[in-house]
Amino acid sequence: MVPCQDTPSVKCPYTAEIRVPTGMTCLMSATDPAGIKDKADTQSDVFRFEQMKPIPSYLIALAVGKISSKQIGPRSFVWAEESVLDAAAFEFSETEAFLQVAEKVVGPYQWGRYDLLLMPPSFPYGGMENPCLTFVTPTLLAGDRSLSSVIAHEISHSWTGNLVTNKTWEHFWLNEGFTTFLERRIVGHLFSEQHRGFAFVGGWKALQNTIEQFGVDNPLTALIPPLDGVDPDDAFSSVPYEKGSMFLLYLESLVGGEEEFNPFLLAYVNKFQGICLTSGDFRDFLLSFFSEKAAQGVFDEVDWKKWFFEPGMPPFLPKCDQTMADNVKSLAQNIVKVIGDSAASGDTSVLTSKLSADDVKPFSSGQLVELLSLLLLEPSVYSVVGVLDSVYNFSNATHNSEVHFRWLRLGMKGGMRESADGALAFVRRQGRMKFVRPLYRDLFGSDIMRAEAYTVFQEFANFYHPIARNLIVKDYEAAVKASNTQQA
What we know:
The protein is of the alpha/beta class. It is built from 21 helices and twelve strands. The strands form four sheets. The chain has a five-stranded mixed beta sheet, with helices on one face. It has a three-stranded antiparallel beta sheet with strand order 1-4-3, with no helix packed on it. Helix 5 (193-214) crosses helix 7 and helix 12 crosses helix 14 (365-376). It is globular and about 70 Å long.
């Protein structure tokens, strides 16, 4: 079976027999990730696996290492190296709650076990939704479960992506847009509709950043991008996740909200499970399911061509609860105003007298992330990042990788050498592309830091996953080209 053609359009079950050195544990994306272990000889053991459900080849996963497990739910274990096992068990203890909410929306979980494997730091993604055995990055270990939405996302793939799969990578949004939408449904049910709305607002900003980076006319920012002759790794971005989930939120609003849309989600999974489909198949089923509403003209306003094929941002942000986002925006605006008052008076003490650590005490970790994201867009902030840190103590939030990452970027915008050193330390110990690529791009974009950063990259190149390594090289080449153009 392996090696095989790598296409999402073909699914098959598999069995495997893996021999590993004695003392090692073998796991696979199979119905019983614990495997059946036999003694092969005095130096090796054999693990046997069986995956009864047909899956595409990209979901065949194999991991071997000195790892232990701890039960975190009636159908879930977390696997990790012994030194981080307890931390992982605590961080992912909400797994069963996520599963149960998802089951209420899209039907029974069909894969038996749902285990998690904490990957080495070089793992390039937040998670990988292998059936029965999700791979997750250690950057999720915040100590307070504040980054657990990634687990909700990977769990959601058990229905959208693993059961119902895009036929080709042009229709990748059918995997990731649906999964992001379902992830936020879980968040809304477990926490609040405000949290769900806040996630959509954050996703909108992430999409804006992606499209700004790619270019508003770049065809790769279309929901269905043209990929002929394009490496899908080069096209990878937040577009299928965020633009896709925004489209579904828009359609949900048209049909009357969650109570009307949830039955469609369940019917969609039941109709297409085990099948690979295109965006046209999705549209046809939606219009068929809501045939009465379609006859009433509910979908007449939907510009399918624009949503599917035009690059750039969606026409608008669909309606969602923006309470949490508005609270962050209000503080960000006040910080910018106080900075302006300070600059006008020439008195930096205005900052410390009018801003207080109490400003952010009510904020969740996600709101701190959003605050830093907004401040990154304000050039007036850059020159006073040190003063802001003395007020809000952002530099000590190293336990939360999302907060720490954005603080490092803001510090570098302000020319803080300690932030550049922090970024170099970060890319030496983590390989998650969501973090290391922007940090390297910032470092490569600095004439002062470019050579040092590239030396660090060369030293740690073999630490990174090949996909990450190749894309960082392209980022470096683009930075050098841009610098040479400016100097010409």
